[in-house]
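Sat 14:20. Reprocessing the chain from the morning session after the first attempt stalled halfway. Input below, unchanged.
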Amino acid sequence: MRARELMSTPVVTVSPETPLKEVAEKMAAHAVSGVPVVDPLGRLVGIVSESDVLARLAHEKTERGLMGLLDALAQSVGAVKRLEAQTAGDLMTTRVLSAGPDASFREMLHLITAYDVNRLPIVESDRVIGIVTRADLLRTLARPDAAVVEDARWRLLHDLWVDPAGLTVTAQQASWRSPARWAPARRRSW
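Finished this time. C-alpha cells:
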C-alpha cells in the first residue's frame, strides 16, 4: 500500500501564529494527537504534538521541588523558549519527518518506528496533502483476507499490468509467532 491510499485527508493544520489554546482545542475537537504547522501557502514548517502542549502546560504549573529543579535545568540548556511558548510557532518541532504520496507501507513503517514518531505528514510539491499515523499502519494488518485479495488483484492489474482473471489469488491469516521466525537462538557449547 502507498501513502496516498492510507493517508487521512483533509489534514487538520495550524499556522505558526495559532495560539496554543486554539491548537489544543483543534486537537481535542478532531481527536488527533498532533497537527502539522503550515505557512500561508500550505507548506510544512513544523509539527506540534499533544505531548508538546502538555509539557508546556506542565511547565506553567510547576513551582518548587523536583519539577522546579527540572525547569531550572531546562532553562540552563536553552529550552525556555519552548517552555514559555504562546503559539504553535514557538512550540513546534521544526525538523519534521515527512513522506511523499507514493511512499510504500514499508518505507512509512521504517520512518515511524526508526525515528519513534507517531505521525508522518504526506507532502507533495512542498504542501501537506495528508497524514499517516501509527494507527493507520496498524489498521492495514487488521484487514480481512478478502480485502487483501482484492487489493492484490487491483495491484496486479494497475501496478504490474498483469490481468489477474486467469490467476488464483488467495490470502490466509498469518501467525505472528511462526516457530521458525521467532525461535530463540540456540547456544552452542564448544
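The domain at 3-141 is CATH 3.10.580.10 (CBS-domain).
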